[in-house]
Amino acid sequence: MADNLNFEETMQELEKIVQKLENGELNLDDSIKEFEKGMELSKCASKYLEDAEKKITILVKDKDGELSENDF
Fold first, then answer.
1. CB 1 within 8 A of CB 37
2. Which helix (H) or strand (E) covers residue 24, if one does?
3. Sequence-distant (≥ 6) Cβ neighbours of residue 57 within 8 angstroms
């Protein structure tokens, strides 16, 4: 389900689930199903963030004022 969504779509789906759960109109079984979907989406969102963090480089000025890239 969440594997084919990008980060923004994953977050939007999570927001929808939170709204449904906070609304209080779902029965217990449906609430549990939505919660399970939310946990799956949350794991996917975390993976997106971990992958993005690995790609980040920090630009650092050396003693000569030159910019160089260092891995995050």
1. yes
2. none
3. 69, 70, 71, 72
Work out the angle at residue 52's Cα, subtended by the Cα atoms of residues 45 and 9, and round it to the nearest 5 degrees.
Answer: 35
**CA distances, 56 to each of 26, 46, 61, 67 (Å):** 41, 15, 16, 15
pTM for the full predicted model: 0.72
pLDDT band of residue 61 (cuts 50, 70, 90) is low
Domain total in the chain: 1
Q: Are 60 and 67 in contact (CB under 8 A)?
A: yes
Residue range(s) defining the domain that contains residue 11: 2-71
Calculate mean pLDDT across residues 15-21.
Answer: 97
Higher-confidence position of 55 and 31: 31
